[in-house]
Amino acid sequence: MRNVLLVDDDSVCNFINKKILELTGLVGDIAIAENGLEALQLLNDYYQDNLFPDLILLDINMPVMNGFEFIREFDLLKRSFKSKVEIVIMSSSDNRKDIQVAESLELRYLVKPLITDNILLLLANKEFR
User: Fold this and answer.
1) Residue 103 neighbours by CB under 8 Å, 6+ apart
2) Residue 25 · residue 75 · CB < 8 Å
3) Distances (CA, A) of 95 to 45, 111, 119
4) SS3 for 38-103, per residue?
5) Which is it for the CA torsion 62, 127, 81, 116, positive or negative?
6) CB-based contacts of 20: which residues, under 8 Å, 6+ apart?
7) What's the pTM?
8) How many CA atoms lie within 13 A of 123 on its CB side?
9) Closest among 24, 80, 29 to 55, alpha carbons compared
10) Contact present, 36 and 66 (Cβ < 8 Å)
């Protein structure tokens, strides 16, 4: 089972993505943050070193703190769980520049909407179709 943190400002996407993740039967706890700052607060306030997300599905374009800003701040955290967390960009943007930035950060990139096949591949640590 993997614990997942969904970071997206779109509540409809969060609802659908949570349901898709639940339907796989492969996910434990699913937490939701509506922007990068809220996600950082969750990581700092609620996750202990033995209870952390294994996977963060991160939107890029959000108010308050966008996905790339979150990644910069996440890299500054002094928490031992960081190396165990996989961050995957999940965005409606198919902008080549966004994809290149994600690639330069060595992050996988999913274009919304999420589909069950890609989630299953992601949870199995395989490449997407």
Assistant:
1) 109
2) no
3) 34, 10, 21
4) HHHHHHHHCCECCECCCEEEECCCCCCCCHHHHHHHHHHCCCHHHHHCEEEEEECCCCHHHHHHHH
5) positive
6) 114, 115, 116, 119
7) 0.88
8) 20
9) 29
10) yes
- Eight-state DSSP code of residue 15: H
* Mean pLDDT of each 10-residue bin along the chain, 129 residues long: 89 93 88 96 76 90 96 86 86 88 90 79 62
Which pLDDT belongs to residue 16? 92
Task: Please report how many Cα atoms fall inside a 13 Å half-sphere around the Cα of residue 114, on the Cβ side.
Answer: 28
Q: Which domains, from first to last, does the chain contain?
A: 8-116 (3.40.50.2300)
Q: 129 near 117, Cβ under 8 Å?
A: yes
Return the number of other C-beta atoms located less than 10 Å from residue 113's C-beta: 12
CB 39 within 8 A of CB 68: no
CB-based contacts of 38, cutoff 8 Å, min separation 6: 7, 64
